[in-house]
Amino acid sequence: MMTEIDKEYVRTIIKGDKRPDGRGFEEFRNLKIEQGYVKNAEGSAMVTLGKTKILVGVKMSIGEPYPDSPDKGVLMVNAELGPVASPDFESGPPRPQAVELARVVDRGVRESKSINMEKLCIEKGEKVWLVAVDIHILNDYGNLIDAAGIGAIAAILDAKIPGIKEDGTPDIENRKEKLDVTQIPITCTIYKITGKMVLDPDLKEESAVDGRLTVTTIDGSICAMQKGGVCGFTPEEVYKAIDISIKKGNEIRKKYFK
Amino acid sequence: MMTEIDKEYVRTIIKGDKRPDGRGFEEFRNLKIEQGYVKNAEGSAMVTLGKTKILVGVKMSIGEPYPDSPDKGVLMVNAELGPVASPDFESGPPRPQAVELARVVDRGVRESKSINMEKLCIEKGEKVWLVAVDIHILNDYGNLIDAAGIGAIAAILDAKIPGIKEDGTPDIENRKEKLDVTQIPITCTIYKITGKMVLDPDLKEESAVDGRLTVTTIDGSICAMQKGGVCGFTPEEVYKAIDISIKKGNEIRKKYFK
Amino acid sequence: MMTEIDKEYVRTIIKGDKRPDGRGFEEFRNLKIEQGYVKNAEGSAMVTLGKTKILVGVKMSIGEPYPDSPDKGVLMVNAELGPVASPDFESGPPRPQAVELARVVDRGVRESKSINMEKLCIEKGEKVWLVAVDIHILNDYGNLIDAAGIGAIAAILDAKIPGIKEDGTPDIENRKEKLDVTQIPITCTIYKITGKMVLDPDLKEESAVDGRLTVTTIDGSICAMQKGGVCGFTPEEVYKAIDISIKKGNEIRKKYFK
Amino acid sequence: MSEEKLIKNDIRPDGRKLDEMREMEARAGVIDRADGSGYFRLGNTIAVAAVYGPKELHPKHLVDPVKAYVKCRYNMAPFSTSDRIRPGPNRRSTEISKVIKDALSSVIFLKEYPETSIEIFIEILQADASTRCVGLNAASIALADAGIPMKDLVTSCAAGKVEGTMILDVAGIEDCEGEVDLPIAYVPRKNEIYLLQMDGIINKDELKKGIEMAIKGCKVIYEKQKEALKNRYAKKGVDKK
Amino acid sequence: MSEEKLIKNDIRPDGRKLDEMREMEARAGVIDRADGSGYFRLGNTIAVAAVYGPKELHPKHLVDPVKAYVKCRYNMAPFSTSDRIRPGPNRRSTEISKVIKDALSSVIFLKEYPETSIEIFIEILQADASTRCVGLNAASIALADAGIPMKDLVTSCAAGKVEGTMILDVAGIEDCEGEVDLPIAYVPRKNEIYLLQMDGIINKDELKKGIEMAIKGCKVIYEKQKEALKNRYAKKGVDKK
Amino acid sequence: MSEEKLIKNDIRPDGRKLDEMREMEARAGVIDRADGSGYFRLGNTIAVAAVYGPKELHPKHLVDPVKAYVKCRYNMAPFSTSDRIRPGPNRRSTEISKVIKDALSSVIFLKEYPETSIEIFIEILQADASTRCVGLNAASIALADAGIPMKDLVTSCAAGKVEGTMILDVAGIEDCEGEVDLPIAYVPRKNEIYLLQMDGIINKDELKKGIEMAIKGCKVIYEKQKEALKNRYAKKGVDKK
Fold first, then answer.
1. Residue C220 has what pLDDT?
2. DSSP state of F233
3. CB of C204 within 8 A of CB of C10?
4. Residue of chain F whose alpha carbon sits nearest to that of A215
5. Residue A136 contacts by C-beta under 8 Å, 6 or more apart in sequence?
6. C41–F79 CB contact, under 8 Å
7. Chain B residues touching chain D at CB-CB below 8 Å
8. Is D236's pLDDT higher than 90?
């Protein structure tokens, strides 16, 4: 939807060390997190990042554990980039962009060992809670990855485990304790535009992005990374990106996750 | 396949309160029901409605009940609008028209509580009969919905429950009692063409249809309705349509289902 | 990829009772069979037939037997004609050519009763070995069928049954005895080009093929046949083709399978 | 099913009267990427809808030289119901997409945009009965917001039968225990019904009563929709200044 | 497998002789929407086939500038066998569609209709062995009924080996217990085989005997097909009056 | 997890030193049908890759008037791992195909082939960790073999963290028991990283060490790739004579 002219305009401004909307290079757009948006979900969060809107929901069901971790719950992260959210998205099975988005968010949550999965065992080797985190994009206005990552952990923090009915099915009328969340991974992506590193591009800026490096951090450590796009990062740029992400992660964690 | 000229021709005639083939507005084409057509099916019916030809088959297998109805059999209705029957149909997964057709017929049978599903329980919570009703279109020459609805109940009435072999699989060589059918739902669709309500359009008339209202009735009551097409029905037209359907339903029930 | 000119060139030469590369009509290209190519597979064979390259792998897992053969293992043959191997192949679900290839090879192995399936029963009616033979085409340079058939039996002969771990899953670190293979079916296809019968066409010759008859033989007997392509075979041609296949089968069996 | 009655002295489980709707909320312009968008909430059922178009249509063989092609997708978010829904279309959503498409096609002046497509995407974010109605209401706002010329707004609402009594806007436990569900889509200016589905056993008088109730409900919704659009235009005016 | 022999004194379980076919029925013109159609029944195996075309071909990249493109779908009705078949193509039906397509392509004068497609759809309504043969016989009638020029009618029939004995037109329990199935498609005027599949262990002499039996069967079918087409033309003539 | 340490006195389970790679093998020109092809083996991980193109692109709406369109498919043979993999794409392979495509697109002079497609197909024949790296290395050779102009060869290699120690080229039991996997793709001539994925908890210093190790590994691979191409050209020269 963005034209070549828009793109060139963005690049020219950024080359001059400014951004079209006047933000600093490491400044996010306005971020709003609304937990508990969906009553039928065990946990949910509506995330608004500038004009980008993502609703993340957590649903829990009872199923079998994997054979190699009989005493642990199962986590699944899924993303739908449905046609409601952008003229560029289409109906149909998840395309590579959606798969990558879901898997990057998944790794952030999984590798940070954010959720205590042992607590989700109901009966060793037989029954555990399956935790499905669904990322539902409502308006794609740039930087879906960070909004989705933040939405996922916000929805997980919001989630309460259902009770269990006599017939062995989940009882969502009687949700009880919260998920045991021990780490708060924050996803922060460094985008390169004409050689500069900027955070949280909006739609127009995103059209001018050459490459990106997503870094998911927990306190002081990195738990997942993903490079995307066609431009390269020198090793030094990678290290600088990590510093920025750790700093930004701490900032967001403090401001939104107390 | 029908041209704009065909369509206008039909509309002109119907405006003049006649039909191209001389039938009355509430008159069906010649209807023929041939039960027991397919020996391998538990029940079947070849329905010929004018030139429209539909073969409906019922197959029964043994499976698990739904958790919320552990003592009931399971009903499934499926329709295939395969490419054999019309140049407009294509191979591939069922398209919206086929899904709607199947679901309208399904609701007619299900909501009328036509089949006594409790009698299909073999072992409570463990094993019940699954009843698959497959609607197989052979020649689409108009009014598939009513032909399919009538074919479905005819095939269900024809069906006999298989015996059970020692290894727990169905024994179709030893079919025994019939399905316990307590109601005979009849599907009758009222089609609007240039403001007139007509029944059972043939292929040419169907090309001129503006909208339709399908009403499935059992003795004196309605058990399912479905509006389709783009023209509206005033509330009064809906009520009139119901009267026509009840009357036609009784007529068909008396003539073909004793 | 082959042009009409290539095709006509091949036809002209063959009409003159010669082949473009100077081989005799019943002569195969150079055949090389490399068993044990894939360490993670229970059995494997890399087959090179001229420039045609096919890797066949056998994987075994534990599953349920079919109800009608509770004391027998299960055989599955699958072929992928992936886009790596030819500009004519595409990604996506197997197309008719791949399905036919897999099923012809499958019937050769299955009908010859090559593998003693009773020996693959672990617990009658409950647990048996599932044997998956995957035909992976790497370079399509003509006569895939025969290369695949020979590769399949070579991989099967190479296969060793895994041990079983305490948790009931296969232990491929402790593979033990070989599959019990009692027959060595050899697939040999007779191709008709301008009325002549030739074996093992290369890519260029294959573009000129009018029809083919695949005959899979074991010692002295035939266990599967498949006619393909659009030209017909007279009954006499069929009988002659069988003689050629039996002879060639014996030759290959003696040379490559001791 | 419980022995105790759900409806006592004409008062429903959630305290409503027989012909009382749940409270509702309507907004226009909620999805910036879309050419038009709408939000509709009826009690705990929430839908958003986006409209893209009129736009170029692919694949070419679907192009209609005399009118616009309408695409419609009704989709439930996986977490919108008590049991998670597998992403992707299913038979239920395929059918609902079709009946919604038919209803909306009825009011759009399709011939004004030949050769183009008008695409309508409805997302149910939270479900507590009447999702197709709430989705339709949101889609109707979205179409108007996109500036697509229509005969009128389509409004939609359901009646139902619970314990033999006809009630308006079934919800919560009524939805689980009820005998009949009767959603309609109605266009006030034309007094016409564009969507009507019914399942469950009912006689003609009950049906008549249900339709009358639902029409009453549709008229209330109609005002809400118009208000949402008015607010949107007002806001747009402000934005322009 | 039962101890008792199926074939006793050269008499088969259903009373037939070794080289005796089941009774059969052939009709042309059974599907009005199609450009041509056919019905073939052999004992309890019933197939109908429709032919559409020659018609415009989509997608364009399949178009062949020198000859018609043949599409062929063999499909079993879900209720045609003892266990219900899931709708949609499976590996077996994909293969059979391909071999039938090859056989029929052999006789059609494809070069008379460049750039078009000829579509053949076969539905098995009731299956008791030899479904591919019966489908082919119906399709052959359908092609002729559609007026597609062909070298000759394709006819198809199977032989088999049961308890070591070669028999014609395997059916019923013979099909479950038999050792070999040998379906062929044959064109009498050319004395050529266009489809041949075989599975099971057999020696060359048995195979020869099987093929000879099957060819004999094909010749009987050929007459039935021609008769069906003759009746159809006669009826068309009557209709015209 | 076993009590006993995998790494003892800086010696790894298979006897390698911390920064020692497995032995490797590279070849060009292994798939005759392709316009270019490559083979790469690193220990027990084996990949082949084929490149087709630049060629005409279908469907037309993907055609880019200013540059080539890159298609990339990473696929594991069903028998390449201990548990059989169902044929067809899955979420993992879809993601890997995308990151490999991005990495390779970075170095190809795409603007030299507007409106065409360049198709890269990678097959993992045997897997023992680092399959995406080995696949990339094979693909890089295949692109060069196809004569596609590139800024440089892409080389790829992984580091990892096992028992708190950073090591190069994780394999075998290290892969199962390790804490961190860190594959990168690197272009020596530009000193730039084109693919980088990481999972597991790591601090910045460890990451730095890992990247440095992996770059060292990439430089070794780079030489192997060049050698393979040199051999190929030499052979081609011989073939021509």
1. 82
2. H
3. yes
4. F198
5. A54, A55, A56, A57, A80, A82, D77, D78, D79, D123, D125
6. yes
7. 94, 96-97, 99-100, 102-103, 107, 110-113, 213, 218, 220-235, 238-239, 242-243, 246
8. no
- The two tokens of residue C239 are 């009988």
Q: Tell me whether residues A99 and F98 touch, CB distance under 8 A.
A: yes
Q: First vs last Cα of chain F: how many Å apart? A: 59
C-alpha separations of C90 from C85, D180, F73, F77, F88 in Å: 10, 50, 11, 16, 12
Given a cut of 80, is residue D239 above it in pLDDT? no
Q: Which residues of C touch E211 (CB under 8 A)?
A: 235, 238
Of F37, F65, F66, give the one whose Cα is nearest residue F51: F37
pTM, full prediction: 0.95
Interstrand relation of F45-56 and F36-42 (parallel, antiparallel or unpaired):
antiparallel
Cα distances (Å, whole numbers) of residue A211 to A29, A206, A237, F133, F196: 20, 10, 12, 20, 12
> Domains along chain B?
4-256 (3.30.230.70)
pLDDT tens sequence across D160-209: 999 999 999 999 899 988 999 999 999 999 999 999 999 999 999 999 99
E138 touches chain B (CB under 8 A): no
Q: What's at E127, amino acid-wise?
A: A
Measured from the Cβ of residue E74, the count of other Cβ atoms closer than 10 Å reads: 27
Which residues 95-124 in chain F show a CB within 8 A of chain C?
119, 121-123
Contacts of F99 in chain A (CB under 8 A): 100, 226-228
| Angstrom distances, CA of residue B110 to CA of B6, B115, B241, D200 | 38, 8, 22, 9
CA B11 to chain centroid, in Å, comes to: 27
- The mean per-residue pLDDT over the stretch B195-214 comes to 96
pLDDT digits (tens, 9 = 90+) for A70-94: 999 999 999 999 999 999 998 888 8
CB contact under 8 A, D196 and B226: yes
Which one of A221, A224, A229 has the shortest CB-CB distance to F102? A229
Report the complex ipTM. Answer: 0.95
> The domain D24-240 is classified under which CATH number: 3.30.230.70, 3.30.70.100, 1.20.1250.20, 3.30.70.260?
3.30.230.70
**Radius of gyration in angstroms for the set of CA atoms belonging to chain D, rounded to a whole number:** 18
E and B interact (at least 3 Cβ pairs within 8 A): yes
